[in-house]
Design goal:
The structure holds two protein chains of two kinds. By secondary structure, chain A is an alpha/beta fold. Chain A has eight helices and 15 strands. Chain A has a five-stranded parallel sheet, sandwiched between helices. Chain A has a five-stranded antiparallel sheet with strand order 10-9-8-12-11. Chain B is of the alpha+beta class. Helices cover 62% and strands 12% of the residues of chain B. Classes of the chains: A alpha/beta, B alpha+beta.
Chain lengths: 262, 394
């Protein structure tokens, strides 16, 4: 198998080279410190496999992988310190990704996957597709589970509430109230903390005590005075206050047709 | 809506915390106007009653008719608003200078009351030629009427000012209470984050030291330790960003940590972590087990050179989750009961659950030390939750 290594760090390239040297069927045909020169050298080497760092100078490893010919070009293994690239790696059809730092065992596991992929290259293997699908499912499940939860209480019982389901957060003295559909929870927290926990969601503060999850807004209208009225998926209605009106307009004004001018 | 004179910005900026508006301009305007209408109404009712009563005994017109009063109060309204706005801006401190100023303002306003009545009279006369018959049986002369209307005005003005002050103070109190409770919560949140960042640097350096020692002799082991350390730090970073983690992830993290420790004390330490792969999705405070396990390793190994066994287990009932960390102690070893780690865990439980979660620790059977976490069962809330519960309890 002809391999090229692309990493902007010399020590990282050496680690990979040493590992590859221990495998009989692998030959390192080129090493590059940036994606541009690797891309330029591809036709000359016609490698079977590229070890690719994700974060590099101008052109990232991800962009290089996107530039490759799908189905016909070399297989790609991303070598990165961040596991948040995992899903993206699948989008560009990577064979695998290796998390830095890795040991021999993990390197061999990766190689095994690559060899399977290589062997199945032309015979459109059902198993490979199924394995990829399973891996993808695992990753998206992991991402779903990694989303922060808020500890909240309703009717005396504690629950973990997925931030993506929360439609509205309302400050209520010592507590915050979370609206999820027709259900209401309360939690010992503040608006500021809740906003922090709900970073992954498009949150918008519409008055002193309310932040709205814009993913759950079903309808927005305006009162004659110019305040915005939000109808949420669960049917709850909230109105923006004068002080936050311009912030609301900045964020969603472009989507609103008609209504009074300010 | 009426355009609000810019003088009305005053009330809030005034009161105490400058820059801060506890009463909006609009509400000051509204409150003062409402109050003034009320005063007008009571004044008219009072004087009409007096007029009717006096008409029983005499035909002399003593009081101005009610139209005059309406106009008089209407004329005074802008003046009242201006005075209140000024008073709001003045405030009361320092009292030596402000109190006389406030009194002067009040007096100035009330002395104009009679004057406003005269103007109202003029206007009504000019516009409607009314009232037709001149009246002017002023028993004790003009000055007495002046004094009496000034006194009425002063009372009304003072009461209104007190009303506005009370409302503004109440608003301020409300806002500040809210803010202070918010600050308390933020502080608790910050404390939680600080409590979570708690893998002791001591452990980290020891692991690095172990790796260094293995590099030349057992490079393979050193490599796998480095990879595990990488995973551990990644897990730590992730956990640092959230308050809760799935129990299976928490156990996996603890297993990783114990794996590294076994790398250090391969000859002495055996570890068993109860499998949790098929565990239902139950959540626990993230990194809650790690200090307990660290504690178990440190105290298990202390004061003797024999083998140590560490067991991490869990027990899930419908309403309660128990997490157990058991370590064997050396013969005659005195296990450290407190320690920073345990205190840390207790504090976190108190912040996150109040009294609903406890940590107990003490000697167990056959020279062991047991730390047990009793937690409420935290599951993901789902829309169909009630039905699911019913099935479970059935």
């Amino acid at each position: 198998m002809r391999v090229i290594i692309v990493d902007d760090e010399a020590a990282a390239r050496k680690t990979l080279r040493d590992r590859c040297a221990m495998e009989k069927d692998i030959e390192v045909v080129g090493e590059y410190a940036d994606a541009e020169s690797a891309l330029a050298a591809l036709p000359q080497h016609s490698p079977d496999l590229i070890f690719l760092d994700v974060k590099m100078g101008r052109l990232s490893g991800m962009q290089l992988a996107q530039a490759l010919e799908p189905g016909n070009g070399p297989l790609v293994v991303f070598v990165t310190a961040f596991d948040r690239y995992a899903l993206q790696a699948f989008e560009v059809n990577a064979a695998d990704f290796l998390l830095k730092p890795f040991d021999r065992e993990r390197f061999r596991t990766t190689l095994r996957r690559v060899r399977e992929r290589c062997a199945a290259r032309n015979t459109a293997s059902y198993q490979i597709a199924a394995a990829t699908l399973a891996e993808l499912q695992r990753l998206s499940q992991a991402r779903l589970e990694a989303r922060p939860r808020l500890l909240a209480e309703t009717g005396g019982a504690l629950h973990m509430v997925d931030v993506a389901q929360v439609e509205l957060v309302t400050a209520d003295r010592n507590y915050i109230a979370l609206t999820v559909g027709r259900e209401s929870f309360h939690a010992r927290s503040t608006l500021i903390q809740a906003e922090e926990s709900m970073r992954s969601q498009p949150m918008l503060q519409i008055n002193r005590s309310c932040i709205v999850n814009l993913n759950h807004v079903r309808q927005v209208s305006r009162t004659p005075r110019g305040d915005y009225v939000f109808v949420l998926t669960g049917g709850t209605t909230v109105t923006s206050s004068e002080r936050f009106r311009h912030k609301v307009r900045e964020r969603i004004g472009q989507f609103i047709v008609g209504g009074p001018k300010d | 809506m009426v355009a609000i004179p810019s003088a009305f910005r005053s009330w809030a900026t005034s009161a105490v915390e400058s820059e801060e508006r506890f009463l909006t301009r609009r509400s000051v305007l509204l409150l003062a106007s409402l109050y003034w209408s009320y005063v007008t109404l009571t004044d008219i009712v009072y004087h009409e009653a007096m007029r009717i009563e006096i008409a029983e005994v005499s035909h002399v017109t003593v009081f101005y008719p009610w139209e005059h009063r309406v106009l008089q109060y209407a004329l005074m309204l802008p003046l009242l608003l201006a005075c209140y706005s000024r008073a709001g801006r003045l405030g009361w401190r320092p009292a030596r200078r402000r109190v006389p100023q406030q009194i002067a303002l009040a007096l100035g306003f009330s002395l104009l009351m009679y004057w406003a009545m005269l103007v109202a009279d003029r206007i009504l006369r000019a516009a409607f030629g009314w009232p037709a018959q001149p009246f002017g049986v002023y028993t004790r002369g003009d000055w007495a009427v002046w004094v009496s209307s000034a006194v009425t005005g002063l009372l009304a003005y003072g009461f209104g000012l007190a009303l506005l002050t009370v409302v503004s103070t109440w608003r301020r109190y409300h806002v500040l209470t809210l803010r202070s409770s918010e600050l308390r919560r933020d502080w608790a949140g910050a404390r939680l984050a600080a409590l979570r960042a708690q893998l002791s640097p001591h452990t980290l350096f020891n692991v690095l030291h172990t790796i260094q020692a293995r590099i030349s002799g057992e490079p393979e082991l050193a490599e796998s330790l480095i990879a595990s350390l990488g995973d551990l730090l990644r897990g730590l970073l992730e956990a640092g960003e959230r308050d809760y983690a799935l129990l299976k992830d928490e156990l996996a993290f603890v297993e990783l940590y114990l794996g590294l420790q076994t790398g250090r004390f391969a000859d002495r330490l055996t570890v068993h972590v109860q499998k949790a792969a098929d565990l239902p999705a139950v959540w626990v405070p993230s990194l809650i087990l790690q200090p307990l396990v660290e504690n178990a390793v440190v105290h298990g190994l202390a004061d003797h050179s024999g083998p140590v066994r560490i067991d991490v287990g869990w027990d899930l009932s419908p309403y309660r989750l128990q997490l157990r960390v058991v370590n064997s102690v050396g013969p005659g070893g005195t296990p450290g009961a407190g320690g920073f780690g345990l205190r840390n865990v207790r504090e976190r439980l108190a912040v996150q659950f109040g009294g609903r979660a406890v940590l107990s620790s003490g000697p167990g059977e056959a020279s062991t030390w047991v730390a047990t976490l009793h937690l409420p069962v935290l599951r993901e809330w789902q829309r169909e939750a009630p039905e699911a519960d019913a099935v479970e309890s059935a």
